[in-house]
Amino acid sequence: MHKIHNQSRIKHAPHTTGATIHWASQYDLMSRLLGMGVDRPNSKMVIELAKVKPGDKVLDVGCGTGSLTLTAQSYAGPGGKVYGIDAAPEMIEVAREKASRLGPQVVFKVGLIEQLAFPETIFDVVISRLAIHHLPNDLKPKGFAEILRILKPGGHLLIADFRPPANPILNHLASALVGSHMMQTDILRLPPMLASTGFVEVSSGPTRSAFLAFVSARKPVN
Asked: Whole-structure pTM over 0.90, yes or no?
């Protein structure tokens, strides 16, 4: 587990064994610099990989300051509904402020992947960018089981997260930017966990980002 988090200034943050980032304003700035802002190239890439379409009901797990969530709403359109959850109240606070400026009716809530406060089988798509690497290995299966529970039959999960660059120069640059601890994670270790949880059509691969790969899976129809 990496340590790029600090103590919440809000007392009522939920308890989790996953790492939680509380420095929301700095995180938002870094995200924009990396092209991960609202409707920026990285955000659009992830939403397109997730195949979000008009009318979809979407959940963004570990939404941070909401940039990916708000991008998803632009793809789901007025007939869709998008939610974002994060363990850090500070992140949700910034996300709500951002949504109030931009206007879309996205719902942001403080919440944990291991205890999703939603009924069964209600979401068409679940997305998560740069969040799963915050979870210890014993927590990941619990989170994946919860995602499987709240997805509709045939629903789609798309995870975008770090893949350590093979090029040593890029790896050094990435480590300097985000910390060597993050470069010890590898999203391509996730497919066996998803398959054992009950997901089907599990696939993985690179993205246009030098530092991100994706894992895609579906909930069985029957």
From this structure: no
- The answer to whether the CB of 114 falls within 8 A of the CB of 146 is yes
**What are the sequence ranges of the domains in the chain?**
24-218
Alpha-carbon torsion (33, 206, 61, 132), positive or negative: negative
CB 108 within 8 A of CB 84: yes
Query: Distance between terminal CA atoms of the chain?
Result: 36
**Percent of the residues in the chain that have a pLDDT greater than 90, as a whole number:** 58
How many other C-beta atoms lie within 10 A of the C-beta of residue 107?
A: 13
Model confidence at 6: pLDDT above 90? no
What does each C-alpha distance from 54 to 96, 117, 157, 201, 212 come to in angstroms? 22, 24, 17, 23, 26
CATH of region 24-218: 3.40.50.150
Per-residue pLDDT reduced to its tens digit, 180-206: 444 445 788 899 999 999 999 999 999
